[in-house]
Amino acid sequence: MGNKTKELLEISKKYEPSCLNWQAPVVWDHAKGAEIWDVDGKHYIDWTSGVLVANVGHAHPALAEALAKQANRLLNPFDFPTPERILLTKRLVELFPPHLDKAFFVTTGSEATDAAIRMAKRYSGKFEILSFWGGFHGRTYGPMSVAGSQKIKKGFGPTVPGTIFSPYPYCYRCPFGKTFPDCDMYCLKFLDKVIEVESTGDLGALIIEPYQGAAGFIFPPDGFLKRLENWAKERDLVFILDEVQSSYGRTGTMWAFEHENLKPNIVTLGKGIGSGVPIAAVVTESKIVNSLGTGEMSSTLGGNPLSCAGALAVLDIMEKEKLVERAKNLGGYLKERLVDLKKKYNFIGDVRGRGMVYGIEFVKDKDSKEPAPELTKEIVLKCVESGLMVGKVGLYGNVLRVAPPLVIEKELIDKSVEIFDSVLSKIKR
To answer: What are the angstrom distances between the C-alpha of 53 and each of 277, 291, 361?
Structure first.
């Protein structure tokens, strides 16, 4: 740790709360593409994308130029539309299936979730919402209330009433002790029992992530989400798909719902939409948003012209540099390299993901599958010391996040995997 880093971390310790929970003692100074430099000049390859935000890479010159130009012209007229907001709305909606024809801008993913829940409750006229074990949808009160993890809610109760929880298909650790595909997605069949036991008969919506990020990059088996969508339609439920993390090319398609041709009623967006600029959105159907009266939904900084100019630049960059296609192709190559490491090390229990997002689950050994959170923490710190910026997540704190910016070059993928392999090879087991 360099002197400047030590100095700044001491200031942070004095004035910032410990609940911020930094992954490693590194103070970022600047970044470019998929590379980072700390305040002491040390270089890192980025496997975090700044928590899956910088899809078009850090400090992309076209994004920086668009922001600078807009900042010199207009920042935030709250009660009036701007060209940037109107043009972004049009362009965003045109990227979605025809039934999703309205977009509403907010500032964060949590705010988008909160708005989606409010829309669904108003439209359905019902207060119950189905969510899933391990789900994470934000830290404000509405989103926290539909979180499927105690550590997000502990000590903050009572939460907003009406949430019903059911297991997410975590096939590596099936809560029913079953094995896919022999189980025929038993977790879907279990939904009816959950509703029968827990609901008051006032279920109006469900919310789910295409893959669970905070829970450990848990991907459901192919076909699960489509069958869930059909289940929801049969019961006339509003289907909310939380794509705050999974959108903007991250999984190798622009929207994760494209993998199964889903037709959700509401989609929430965040993170990659601004690639570092604070903006999020709810994309939905006219019939749903029209259930709200004039002025019943607003956001002080949502859709401000600076953020909208940035979001427009992000779309330009993604199209020009073909980042969705790049994530699919180079992401497939990255997965091959990671799967090779799984075969090599007995403490890698699972590698899962698609496109440019993967979770590596560390265990004490492959047979027991016992989570190894302390080992994971050790690996994170040693990777960072070796110049590979990583972080850990997961219900047990034993999953390494692998989500580089979509602009990462093949050469950097190879170099980053080599660093990772070198760190793993020195682990004493």
So the answer is: 9, 32, 22
